[in-house]
Amino acid sequence: MMFNPQFEKIGNILVHEAILTQEQLESALERQKTTSEKLGKLLLSMGLLSEDDLVRAYALQMGHRAVYDEDLLRANSSDVKYLPEDFATTNMAVAVAVTPTTILVAMEDPEDLATIDTIEKITKLKVEVLVASDSSINRAIEYHYSRIRQSGEVADALSNIQVFAGSEDDEGEGVDLSSQRVSDEEAPFVKLVNLILQEAIKERATDIHVEPQANEVAIRVRIDGVLQKIMAPPISSVSGLTTRIKILSNLNIAERRLPQDGRFTIKTGDREIDVRVSVLPTIFGEKIVMRLLDKGSFNMDLTGLGFVEKEINIFKRWITQPYGMVIISGPTGSGKSTTLYASLKDIKSEGTNITTVEDPVEYQLGGISQVQVKEKIGLTFSSTLRSILRQDPDILLIGEIRDEETADIAIKFSLTGHLVFSTVHANDAPSTITRLIDIGIPPFLVGSSLNLVMAQRLVRRICPHCKLEYKPTDEELTRVQVPEQFKKNTFYKGKGCVNCRQTGYRGRTGIFEILEVRQPIRKMIFANANQEEIRERAAELGMMSLRDAGISK
Predict the structure, then answer these.
(1) Where would a tag sit more exposed on the chain, N or C end, judged by fewer CB atoms within 10 A?
(2) What percentage of the chain exceeds 70 in pLDDT?
């Protein structure tokens, strides 16, 4: 007899589709006698199938088409909003597509005739039902309606745009994003800039890019190290946007030919965020990049940075020495400052005097003295460091070694019984050493002062909400130079979901290249060895490269 799923129980369908074995079904049915759970939920809790498997079986049983996360999240928001958000949430129904006569609706319960009837009355269209899981529907509702609300706010802000005039005397001390009230007399661009800032903070962004293009202003935010577009107001809004941001930053609103740098502070709830602003003239208007720095108390420790046990033991050994230099290297945004702050938090005590010289002070850390460099008034790294020598410090953090004078003071400070932490822009640990020599520090001073050099990068974590096993091709393994011993490991990738904005990644972790400057390396520095020679010898002594550190994770 031909198998007809519409006349079969869900368990038989799962066995017929080879999702379950007969033995697994019988085991679940036996267990169901004591739990009284619905079979589908019981099978999920036992880990015998996925939500997608269950949806496919229900769709076969009910004679409807199944849809999954990717289908729902790819739906056009203009179709989704055919159903009001409160109705979609209450009835667990999402509009997926609309034709002149039909609306396709994903539902958890395709036999809910009352909801189907209401949708037909609301839309004046015939409903075609699709089957989806409740979690997929919830994710789709959150994803689409948050975007619909956002686009509505942008449209509202732009609908009343007029020429915006600001005063250069406006100090722009800060904008309070926690206020729920926006008065009618506020300029539309004030609302739009606030909306951009709110969205960036909500998405954990580190940077905001306002980029004028031929027909629009692309608003992109950097989330977990990657830029993502969040909105695109028309190009006619570029002048008002830049004017508002310049006023907040206390910049010259009349100057549009030269780059400018400024800053302002935003307040949202109990958080205070420092915003560094860079303005650059382009052919379509002024491009603005805003760097977001949370000024709140620092709460990260070394164990949360991504060190493996061996790495953290080596690192702690050197940051607890009474004197010498610890240098962290890497590009902008690689987490150097976070590592330094976590180090100070780990070693600070009432018995030590710790002072930092920074530009900017990125976090506030209790129990230490932090100095903000202000070059406009002559408070530079070098001038501040000369004064700090008279402040009886035990440990000194220098935000960045940028020039020979700063490097010279830092190294001599470390050679007189003090522990110094700093950062250098370099590609890896060996090139950090040669970078110090290149800016004018004699090799014998570099070799004598350094305790440890560590290069680091921040890499994206696979989103835990959509993590799947993945088998890479031989070509992919070769391209990223995966060593033979790792090729049989289990690999994973992110499918993409509402929690990670469909990227497959959420959050970041560190990878580290730790170079201990022991006697063999010290002798090579004294002999002015090049970075390749230092790298080769360090590898022989046990240094793991950034690539190998990443692969091992």
Answers:
(1) N
(2) 90
pTM for the whole thing? 0.66
The CATH homologous superfamily for domain 302-461+508-552 is P-loop containing nucleotide triphosphate hydrolases (3.40.50.300)
**CA 360, CA 337: separation in Å to the nearest integer?**
10
Angle, helices 531-540 vs 429-438, to 10°: value is 150
H or E element that contains 65:
strand 65-66
How far apart CA 435 and CA 442 sit, in angstroms, is 11
Beta strands of 189-236 (E only): which ranges?
A: 207-212, 217-223, 226-231
Name the one residue in this structure whose structure tokens are 């994770």: 553
Q: What is the pLDDT of residues 50-67, one digit of tens each?
A: 777 877 877 777 778 888
Q: What is the pLDDT of residues 154-195, one digit of tens each?
A: 555 555 433 222 333 333 445 555 444 444 434 678 888 888
Strand partners, 491: 470
- In single-letter form, the type of residue at position 367 comes to G
- Looking at residue 375, its pLDDT comes to 81
Homologous superfamily of 5-142 in CATH? Type II secretion system, protein E, N-terminal domain (3.30.300.160)
Task: Give bridge partners of residue 446 from the DSSP assignment.
Answer: none
